[in-house]
Prior knowledge:
By secondary structure, the protein is of the alpha+beta class. Helices cover 69% and strands 10% of the residues. It has helices spanning 2-33, 41-64, 70-94, 100-116, 119-143, 149-183, 193-210, 224-231, 233-250, 274-290, 317-333; strands spanning 214-221, 256-261, 264-270, 294-295, 298-299, 304-310, 339-340. The strands form 2 sheets. Strands 2-3-1-6-7 form a 5-stranded mixed beta sheet, with helices on both faces. Strands 4-5 form a two-stranded antiparallel ribbon. α2 runs antiparallel to α3 (70-94) and α5 (119-143) runs antiparallel to α6. The model has no long low-confidence stretch (mean pLDDT 91).
Amino acid sequence: xxxxxxxxxxxxxxxxxxxxxxxxxxxxxxxxxxxxxxxxxxxxxxxxxxxxxxxxxxxxxxxxxxxxxxxxxxxxxxxxxxxxxxxxxxxxxxxxxxxxxxxxxxxxxxxxxxxxxxxxxxxxxxxxxxxxxxxxxxxxxxxxxxxxxxxxxxxxxxxxxxxxxxxxxxxxxxxxxxxxxxxxxxxxxxxxxxxxxxxxxxxxxxxxxxxxxxxxxxxxxxxxxxxxxxxxxxxxxxxxxxxxxxxxxxxxxxxxxxxxxxxxxxxxxxxxxxxxxxxxxxxxxxxxxxxxxxxxxxxxxxxxxxxxxxxxxxxxxxxxxxxxxxxxxxxxxxxxxxxxx
Length: 341
């Protein structure tokens, strides 16, 4: 499954690179047409001829490799990055007086990096683009001397670097908020099911690899429907938030707390066996029973039924979730307001 994922990512990057290269080729032809570069059509056609063999070779490798590991895909990506730097530098050199256009198009490519990678990756990209632009500029100035060349280049570079860093920083903030919204429950601020399941799978693999314990705790608020029916959904939300706060207050930084849906919560407890998880769950239950949220003139009470299982006792995360759900319903059948392991 992961091999297919890596292949898909590499193919996407290669195809998008080919589109970008041909876009750059058209810009080069326009520069020649309007006599904005001392170079000729043949120079840009030669550049395009050097473009195809490496990219075709990469595509052949991607399609022929049956099992693609992360390390292999990283090596292919680094080759594509090196190829891009070389082609960008040659194109930048050939553009002549149109060289600032190279920075503009690089800025567009930077937006893609900002959306799909980290802020650090964006800074590295900015540094690489600037370095290649300076090197190609040095070669161009040596070939076609111009006393005002570096004055203009400094202005272009400062404008590019300043704008690019600010845009990358703000896009990183927006991207973070989008990712957070996708994995966070809006009411309680806890992880939602989608965010939790990814972390659960990672912890399951870690447990299996290093033979270390981890436990799952599933909680369901008792008689929650009666609270909604009698006091209204707003006060029902108050109960949910109050319990979420209790779960957060008692959890360690390494614990993962999730609102599974409705009045159900799931906790992932790394480095915790079933016995320790039971003690923790009893402490949570005692705190919940002592909490009395206000609903108008009434004080509400919080009780819950919970199940506990040890994660590595099962073949996969789905089996563990089914098992802990069954334990929770056993607690309800045995009288509610208790934990079953």
